[in-house]
Amino acid sequence: MENVTTACPTRSLYPPMRTSLPEHMSAARAPLPPGVATEVARWAASAGGKRFCAAARERLRNNGKLASPLRLHGLTDEEWNDIHDLFGREACGRRGEVKLAVADRVLRTGALSIGLRRLLIETGGSIITRSGHARYQRIAKRREVSQARHSLAEAIAGIPELTDELLLLNSLGKEDKFVVPPGTRTGSVHWKPYNSALRVAAVYYQRVDMGKPIPEQSLPTTALDSSKRWSAGSKAAFQNLIGKSLEEAVELRDKPIQMRGPLTWVVDGVTVALAELAMPWICLPLRALLKADIIGARPRGLLLVENHENFEQVCKNTDVPQRWLVIWAEGYTGNLVHRFIGKFPGIPLAAWCDLDPDGIGIIGRAEQATGRTITPIGMGVDLWNTVVADKSPSAEDMEQCRQAVRIVEAVTPPALRDLLECFRHTGARAEQQHCVVYDDVLPTLPTILAALEPGEQATRHFN
Questions:
Q1: Which pairing describes strands 374-376 and 349-352: parallel, antiparallel, or unpaired?
Q2: Digits of tens for pLDDT over the chain (463 positions)?
Q3: Whole-angstrom Cα distance, residue 171 to residue 162?
Q4: Residue 77 and residue 105: Cα distance in Å, rounded?
Q5: Measured between alpha carbons, how far is 347 from 452 in angstroms, rounded to an integer?
Q6: Are 107 and 74 in contact (CB under 8 A)?
């Protein structure tokens, strides 16, 4: 790929930053003579020395000055004598009052030959005032922002397709916060997805130019050192940037989906899989199913099951798979599963999920994505009461449950709002492997699902 060197004046715009504190904020000084250091340490360890140093350091931390007197209340005779011994009668006025300016002069002109501030630093370390701390934080943040911009500019320099983005990045002024340049093609307003999208795009365009394969996860792993940083926001910004969907741009990993039921997958006239005959279930590539020209299927309904043990129990110990397509939701349902559900219009949908906020979220998000109603199975308040009757969740578990409630309440279907309120008020939740659940749900599941079938199908029960 041809280098574009003139478009990246990054070294002049982003000079290397100093990594140490400014000199006036550093405690680095020539060490004290051994005798002086020993005497200073001895006095600072005395009862009066401890009281004085603590009070003086606190004044400096609060942006106070060493010019005005320091008043120490409730001193014992021993503490006051320790202070008086070091600073003398001139600096120590009324009991408990130390004239700090005089004390500083006494120290500088006496045997120790150090100032009061040096004494405090030697005995307790550097002192960062409130205003100094805030100033340092701004300096450090500005350095962090500058280094991040410089690193990003270097990553995208020399990529012709990103020249306009490089110019936008270089146009940003000196700031102590992360901002995204107006006009970026990523469409992002946050730095992290913007930064990730540009870095990944740089790798993407290089591989396109070399004519090499582009597996999806190889991009973030190469550009970001970890595929875990490849968030939904980063993917959206990347797609906006290159003007293509992920499916068009890269080789997406397929997602396995476990199922059993009346589905026959036929490709080019060849039967690839018979999901109804599989025991206890079959695992198929979901993306391939979605892309296939022919999916021969005749289910009377589609049942999502969150818990894998429950899914297997339905497949092995009921006749449900003879009429309904049973799918393991794998603890969540993503876009691919929602699209797969869309392959079966006009049939009833049901879901058997855990008795917790996450289970409600699975159903709520699937309803929003598909625009169809999903009937919850085994998720009634009475069953929940039975399962949690002997449970005493910890305070931490209760708070986690309530936090999960706040996350899913916006997508909670009407049929599950009473259950959600139970979670909110008690913080108690339960998984579906409980024996009571098996005894209550599994025997009645065929009849419950048959009643959801439309028309004459509703009168035909599972054997």
A1: parallel
A2: 333 333 333 333 333 443 344 433 444 567 888 889 999 999 999 999 999 999 998 888 887 788 889 999 999 999 999 999 999 999 998 889 999 999 999 999 998 999 998 999 888 888 777 777 777 788 888 899 999 999 999 999 999 999 999 999 999 988 778 999 999 999 999 999 999 999 999 999 998 888 888 887 788 888 888 777 788 889 999 999 999 888 788 877 778 899 999 988 887 778 888 888 889 999 998 888 887 755 666 799 999 999 898 999 999 999 999 999 999 987 666 788 898 998 889 999 999 998 999 999 999 999 999 999 999 999 999 989 888 877 788 899 899 999 999 989 999 999 999 999 999 999 998 876 666 677 788 899 999 999 999 864 433 333 3
A3: 14
A4: 24
A5: 9
A6: no
Which ranges in the chain are annotated with CATH 3.40.1360.10? 256-459
For the record, the structure tokens of 442 come out as 């599994």
State the alpha helices, DSSP H only, in 389-432.
395-408, 417-426
Compute CA distances 130 → 3, 56, 60, 127, whole Å.
48, 15, 9, 10
Q: Which two tokens stand for residue 290?
A: 């979605």
Nearest Cα neighbor of 361 from 336, 342, 379 is 379
0.85 exceeded by the pTM?
no
Question: Tokens 């940037």 correspond to what residue?
Answer: 241
Topology adopted by domain 256-459: Dna Topoisomerase Vi A Subunit; Chain: A, domain 2 (3.40.1360)
